[in-house]
Amino acid sequence: MDIKVPVNAIEIAALPLPRTEAGSENGAGDVTSTPATVSSTREVILVGGGGGPGSTGLVNKLCMLAWDDESLEPTLKIVKEATFGKNEDAPWSAALHPDGSLIATGVNAPAKSEFNRNCRILSPGETELKESSAFMTIREGDHDYQCTCAFSPDGTLLATGSDEGRLSVLRVPGFVQCDWAPIDLGSKVYNVTFTDDSTQVIATSANALRVYAVKSGEIMLEVVPPAGHTFRAGGKGIGSRFYTLVNQGRKKSFISEWDLTAPSKPLRTTTLASKPAVSFSVRGAVAAVGLADCSLVLLHDMRVAKRHANAHDVPIMSIGISRAKPVVVTASGDGFVRTWRAPEASRSGALVHAAAHLATSPILVAILALLIALWVTWLALPAVVPETDLVSLGIPFVRLVPGAASAAKVGLIADHVPWAREWGLDAFTLG
Description:
By secondary structure, the protein is mainly beta. The chain has helices spanning 347-359, 362-384, 387-393, 418-422, and strands at residues 7-16, 24-25, 31-32, 41-49, 60-67, 76-84, 94-96, 103-106, 119-124, 129-135, 146-151, 157-162, 166-171, 176-177, 183-184, 189-194, 200-205, 209-213, 219-223, 230-236, 241-248, 252-259, 268-273, 277-283, 286-291, 296-300, 303-308, 316-321, 327-332, 337-341, 397-401, 409-413, 429-430. The chain is built from four helices and 33 strands.
């Protein structure tokens, strides 16, 4: 769909639906209740962008989109929006509170404002998004802006990151900085997110991936890119898994998968292209990457599944992956929001993944080694145990069947074993 303004940010989130009464009366006068399995959320997509400050003729706005259920294809429609003044900046980040009551977005105030209350808090109304408060999360000056934000899973915190490297964590709903001061990470903060228990915040900047304790601001973990490389984005996976998008200058781009409980080296790395990457998103086994040549790379379980050349007219600025549909959503400065079918696991890919898992499981490897040892021992039995003893013990064995050398066969001697005769194995030969 055409938003008609350059798009800087996408956020896909679940919006809780208004709760119904515990029960309702049906036509027979009975009271019925809604089954617990019925979904109580719907997916929304926040899209922010615009022409920025000045007389560009392009509106600065944040739109809330929803899936058009009447369309057979994945189609989006605008349901609500907020607009900002022509002297204000365009939104560069967006996040929806877990209960759906608040939206945080980064919009710089006009340059001549005494205070740049850049972080705007909006409340979804019936037909529009209404600004309810604003405060500052960036450095003072004319150049910094809030380029990422995220609410914690429990809804009690908001993390923001700026272009000049400032990380802030604020308590919700008061939006007061935590007991520790904002942290200067030294380079642009591309992504912020929280651990599942909301006790740690994870910030990905160009020069490091860092994990901080929310309570104290103490750094708990730091992962740096290889020499000559920079992180371009980060994304939380399932559990302790985390993914980084890495550029080697303009020569190469790749994704690394990490286990943050043992981050000494990546678990897996997948090369993307011999050109830099500019945007990234991951959800479950699906990942999507926008490259500098305007192409889109889709991956499943760290394997490249599909490449879309010229996905947009200019490089993709932001990517989201749907929870509700097998769809990837992209947006860029060309003003279009586009949808792409998310890759699924192929049968061969699933087999390769299963084989790789088996090969790295110590218990399964030990069992396989034991089975092979038992098989080899059984083959060698006739060489060390007299055949008469094997017969009396009821153990089948193999023997070279007499005949011409060129027609020699290996036969299974099992006519003394009742269950083997029933299965017809006493007549089995090989060769």
